[in-house]
Inverse folding.
């Protein structure tokens, strides 16, 4: 009865998530992120309230459900993190190296401002319908690049993203893996990141999810806010179009 | 100083339901770091809640409580607009007090 066993595991994990839904510690990151968003920061002492996430300067509500997108001022397709880095450099006067520092937190000693900001901005898109456009040629190009990367096999294990995420019913240990080649799988996966990972006691962003998938595949390190990371995000975000965004979530 | 708590207090029927999220590492003292050195214990030791200066909850906690703990409890006698004040003190003597209004 391997199928029945797998199914009951999925159900039990779903129950576990439901039990933890009330009182998701992600709210602590959201609160810290909101304070950081409004705070005057950096050498120029400017808050993020001048930062344009695509819907106008300072508009946060619903912005994440439309990212990644092409930004004319930067002449580049950007996801949320890439855009926040851009605002930190152009608006707040940080050096690029400082803006890219510490993207993922680790405990009390090394809290990540980036993850807190991501938690806040994404929480303001909860309930917004995913609507990522491919209207600009560069957006289309980014999507195609992401698609190519998703199926590209490489590394010491000859792995591709599609190796784990290309079929229904695959698992790592007891954790079911979403099939990201189908609309339903992509929607369910993309709209539930960022998430508070109970096993790590940390809020994790989608950039982190990709970074850790690269590590698990034994690929070279995925550089934070690189075009490669934006391309994969673009591919998955676009495939998730049509359903409501529902994060920060909570995961095992 | 520690980051703020997130407190919600709602009147449900004749009792007040309080939900608190606390920001704390809650180190057990059992874990070791990458060098094999024990990470010293550091956890919330006591939690108290008052409503209109009257104690409605007083708890002693140990290292078995999770990181970033979530506490939910009910008490009778609160009214809309009353203030619920939560205080925790940890094993280093650090403390944090936050409040919420019953809705």
């Amino acid at each position: 009865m391997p199928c029945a066993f797998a199914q009951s595991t999925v159900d039990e994990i779903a129950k576990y998530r439901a039990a933890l839904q009330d009182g998701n510690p992600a709210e602590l990151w959201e609160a810290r992120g909101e304070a950081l968003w409004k705070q005057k920061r950096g050498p120029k002492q400017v808050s993020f309230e001048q930062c344009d996430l695509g819907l106008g300067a300072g508009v946060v509500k619903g912005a994440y459900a439309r990212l990644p997108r092409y930004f004319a001022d930067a002449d580049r397709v950007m996801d949320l993190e890439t855009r926040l880095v851009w605002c930190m450099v152009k608006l707040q006067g940080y050096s690029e190296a400082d803006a890219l520092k510490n993207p993922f937190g680790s405990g009390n000693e090394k809290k990540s401002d980036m993850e807190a900001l991501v938690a806040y901005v994404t929480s303001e898109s909860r309930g917004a319908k995913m609507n990522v456009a491919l209207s600009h040629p560069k957006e289309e190009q980014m999507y195609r690049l992401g698609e190519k990367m998703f199926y590209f096999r490489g590394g010491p294990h000859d792995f591709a993203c599609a190796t784990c995420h290309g079929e229904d019913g695959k698992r790592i240990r007891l954790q079911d893996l979403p099939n990201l080649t189908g609309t339903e799988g992509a929607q369910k996966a993309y709209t539930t990141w960022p998430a508070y990972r109970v096993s790590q006691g940390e809020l994790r962003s989608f950039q982190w999810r990709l970074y850790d998938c690269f590590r698990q595949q034994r690929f070279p390190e995925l550089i934070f806010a690189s075009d490669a990371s934006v391309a994969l995000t673009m591919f998955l975000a676009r495939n998730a179009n049509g359903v409501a965004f529902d994060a920060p979530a909570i995961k095992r | 100083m520690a980051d703020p708590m997130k407190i919600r207090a709602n009147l449900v029927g004749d009792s007040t339901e309080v939900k608190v999220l606390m920001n704390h590492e809650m180190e057990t003292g059992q874990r070791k770091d990458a060098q094999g050195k024990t990470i010293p214990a550091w956890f919330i030791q006591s939690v108290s809640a008052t409503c209109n200066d009257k104690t409605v909850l007083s708890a002693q906690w140990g290292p078995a409580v999770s990181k970033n703990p979530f506490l939910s409890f009910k008490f009778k006698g609160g009214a809309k607009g009353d203030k619920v004040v939560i205080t925790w003190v940890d094993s280093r003597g650090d403390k944090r007090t936050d409040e919420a209004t019953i809705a």
The CA atoms of residues 214 and 222 of chain A lie 6 Å apart. The domain at 2-251 of chain A is CATH 1.10.760.10 (Cytochrome Bc1 Complex; Chain D, domain 2).
